[in-house]
Amino acid sequence: MNITLHNITKKYGDKTVLSIDQLEFKTGTVTGIIGPNGSGKSTLMRIISGIDKEYTGCLNIDGHEINQEICKNMTLVFQKPYLINTDVYNNIAYPLKIRGVSKLEMNRKIENMIELLQLKEIIRQSARTLSGGEMQRVALARAIVFEPRLLLLDEPTSNIDPKTMQLMESAIKYINKCCNTTVVLVTHNIRQLRRVCTEAVFMQEGKVVERDLVKDVLNRLDEDFIGDFLEKELPI
Ligand SMILES: Nc1ncnc2c1ncn2[C@@H]1O[C@H](COP(=O)(O)OP(=O)(O)OP(=O)(O)O)[C@@H](O)[C@H]1O
Ligand SMILES: [Mg+2]
Fold first, then answer.
1. Is the whole-model pTM more than 0.85?
2. Annotated domain spans of the chain
3. Which residues line ligand 1 (CB under 6 A)?
4. Which listed site, 64, 106, 118, 217, has its alpha carbon 20 to 30 Å from 58?
């Protein structure tokens, strides 16, 4: 999916939290959104996903305004993932059920996710009892199991151990490659940005300050300054 934004403004009362003249995410690209706390990253994700409709300006997806068909083909993984109150299997099955996928196809796709994200041991566990990191892994599985054309990820690997992070990053890259899924990933991890994304958007105070290939954006930003909002010292 190709996403274009023009003159997007989002306000809370008198406070403008997002002000974007122009921004495009091309089909099949993996873009990292970086920037300090409160710079509008999650706000931008909620607007693109269609969850937040209280803004002015123009958002187009494949040349259309958001409609049901577009929503069926995209998903957002929240900064704090929420799961439905059932077991892991049924959480992952849910997006397939509501899209009318056959039982056979459903089992095949879920098996694929179990392998990709190593969910075998927790597949029948109640989602309520999962650890934070397990929840994030299940939330990612549920997001990619229906092969979305647009995958929006808001800090999907915060508080994740290095091994699980690798697993999740591989799953993100896998879905991008196999389905040409457009991926927009909010992250505070500079190494993750380098590993997963080809392009980067740097936001500050609701505005897009830099937008280019990852290496070019990082080259243009002062190193100390980057350290203020990216966890560059993480071992992974
Ligand atoms: N419901 C609200 N009412 C008032 N202000 C809000 C509301 N929701 C968000 N904001 C403000 O909008 C700004 C942007 O918030 P947003 O969550 O998009 O930031 P962020 O870049 O995702 O930050 P973080 O890195 O901490 O996740 C912040 O200043 C926040 O306080
Ligand atoms: Mg946020």
1. yes
2. 3-227
3. 12, 17, 35, 37-43, 79
4. 217
